[in-house]
Design a protein that fits this description.
This protein folds into 2 domains: about 10-220, TIM Barrel (Alpha-Beta Barrel), CATH 3.20.20.10; about 235-360, Lyase, Ornithine Decarboxylase, Chain A, domain 1. The chain has 11 helices and 18 strands. Helix 10 (about 330-340) packs across helix 11 (about 340-350). Helix 4 links the parallel strand 3 (about 55-60) and strand 4. By secondary structure, the chain is α/β, with parallel strands linked by helices.
């Protein structure tokens, strides 16, 4: 292996995780969320591997355009909607579905004068207090959308859960109840469940589910890893040793001299740093796998490199392979050591990291 870091994407694992999601979702349709470069896994390669999904969810117009340009024909939902006439026209050209969460977006549709009949997803804010209409306004919003000319080809309803990662949480139950109270008599398909909602203990009863992190083989919960949910990690973040140093007892390693050798030690320098997306907050002692064996981080992560104490490992040399996360070292464990969540680590993988897609 060369000294450069790479992210190896296992499309078999993606497809396996989609099958697990489908089994969990029952009769509900699956909108695979591929926003933010598919959580760092590559937008188009991920969508191509997940073409069995019923739809794709993206945050922004540019992501939807890129999927269409790459040959994706499934429905694509803009989860933030559009914010101007030009964006609305482009969404129509690309045959995108729109989330509507603000009065300004209704006004855009009313003034458009276009011939496109959109599928519109009306977002109801049940407690996230980020995007969406208050439940008490949903009836008036829907009536206004029904009067559009041309009329929507279909209206659907959705909300977003703020605490579903806490499994059997009272906040989730309250959000679901608010959503049910606002939509009970309406003849529209509904979507509630993200990954945490899908695998949590609160019954949601959706027509559509919107998995994100679960598709990529990471857990939405703090108390388990993906394997406990039957999911497989999709990304292997790999690098290699580029130097091995002998450090005498009492010498310091890295910026700030944060790590001090308690004995004569062997330090392996790895081609991976915060310029690649590895968090500088990774604490001393955080594990990596050196040729399949655990070794602790020594000192601070720098921009291009990290140092690891390999004093207990024999045979480590320049070129020895390193696994930063993937099968054998769960990204959830790495995230805990960095004081963050798997979502952030995966999304932070930088563009200079070479993406290698192992196709099914």
């Amino acid at each position: 292996m060369s000294g450069s870091i790479r992210a190896v994407i296992d499309t078999n694992a993606l497809q396996h995780n989609l099958s697990v999601v489908r089994a969990r979702a029952g009769s509900a349709r699956v909108m695979a969320v591929v926003k933010a470069n598919a959580y760092g896994h590559g937008l188009l390669p991920t969508a191509l591997a997940l073409q069995a999904a019923d739809a794709f969810g993206v945050a922004r117009l540019e992501e939807g355009v890129a999927l269409r340009a790459g040959g994706i024909t499934q429905p694509i939902v803009l989860l933030e909607g559009v914010f101007g006439a030009e964006q609305l026209e482009e969404a129509a050209r690309q045959r995108l579905q729109l989330v509507v969460h603000d009065v300004s977006q209704i006004e855009l549709l009313e003034c458009s004068g276009g011939a496109q009949r959109f599928v519109l997803w009306v977002k109801i804010d049940t407690g996230m207090n980020r995007l969406g209409f208050p439940p008490g306004e949903s009836a008036a919003v829907l009536e206004r959308l029904r009067r559009l000319s041309p009329a929507p080809s279909e209206l659907r309803l959705l909300t977003h859960l703020s605490c579903a990662n806490e499994r059997d949480d009272a906040v989730t139950r309250a959000q679901v109840q608010r959503f049910r109270d606002a939509t009970r008599s309406l003849p529209y398909a509904v979507s509630i469940a993200n990954s945490a909602g899908l695998f949590g203990a609160v019954a949601l009863g959706c027509d559509w589910v919107r998995p994100g992190i679960a598709l990529y083989g990471a857990s939405p919960f703090d108390d388990c890893i993906a394997a406990d949910l039957g999911l497989e990690p999709v990304m292997r973040l790999e690098s290699s040793v580029i130097a091995v140093r002998r450090v005498a007892r009492g010498e310091r390693v890295g910026y700030g001299g944060a790590w001090v050798a308690k004995r004569d030690s062997a330090i392996a320098v790895i081609a991976a740093g915060y310029g690649d997306g590895l968090h500088r907050s990774l604490g001393g002692g955080a594990p990596v796998l050196i040729d399949g064996r655990r070794a602790p981080l020594a000192g601070r992560v720098s921009m291009d490199m990290m140092a690891v104490d390999v004093s207990e490992l024999a045979g480590v040399r320049v070129g020895t392979p390193v696994l930063l996360w993937g099968p054998g070292l769960a990204v959830e464990e790495v995230a805990r050591n960095a004081g963050t969540i798997p979502y952030e680590l995966l999304c932070a993988v930088s563009q200079r990291v070479r993406l290698v897609v192992n196709r099914a």
